Amino acid sequence: MKTFLNKTRGVLATGLAISALALGMGVAAPGVASAQPAPVGGSAQHTQAPPSNMDRAIDFWAGMGWPNWRNIGDREWIEAARHDDSNGVHYEIVFTGGRFYDRDQGIINFMNSPAAPSSSHGYTGTFQEYNTTIYDRQRDDEVPRRDRNRIVRAIGTGDLFWTDDHYSTFHYAGRS
Fold it and tell me: Most buried one in 75, 92, 154, 169, CB count within 10 A?
């Protein structure tokens, strides 16, 4: 029994040493974020307008008063419009991604930098994610697969960020 316990302790110690070394080298287990914060382009003086293919959804969300995970649910499809034609009823839907956690702190780092409006500095609130593609579908169609375009908005300040590469980079679009 003593030999078994000593071997178990040795295996655990080796595992802990490897984990500590991996963390020190910036290596993480699969699925664990270890990357540098996503860079944010633009500034309060030089905002970066989203691509035109995002405009309609941004107008939709702004028209709804920028709902967030507290008043529309954490993650869900929302009907953006409905219209009838000779082929039946078509729905336009858009997805709200729910709360955005900014796990790598890229947006928070930007909000505390000189590039952001000074009123954004020290923000500790939450963020909401919005999809920026409105999909046209018939009621019985498959729910579409979401693309890489997103808007992230600081709920407390209205600072608006967009990404067209699913969070690899962000662009500061000002406030809305």
Answer: 154
Please state, in angstroms and rounded to a whole number, the distance separating the CA atoms of residues 143 and 151. 20
pLDDT of res. 12: 45
pLDDT tens digits, one per residue of 88-108: 777 888 888 889 999 899 999
pLDDT, residue 138, reads: 63
Q: Taking the CA atoms of 118, 121, 126 and 131 in sequence, report the sign of the dihedral they define.
A: positive
Q: For residue 146, what are its two tokens?
A: 């979401």
Q: Amino acid letter at 87?
A: N
For the chain, what's the residue count? 176
Angle CA 74–78–83, to nearest 5 = 175
Find residue 161's DSSP bridge partners.
152, 172
Q: Are 72 and 78 in contact (CB under 8 A)?
A: yes
CB distance 55 to 173 below 8 Å: no
SS3 153: strand
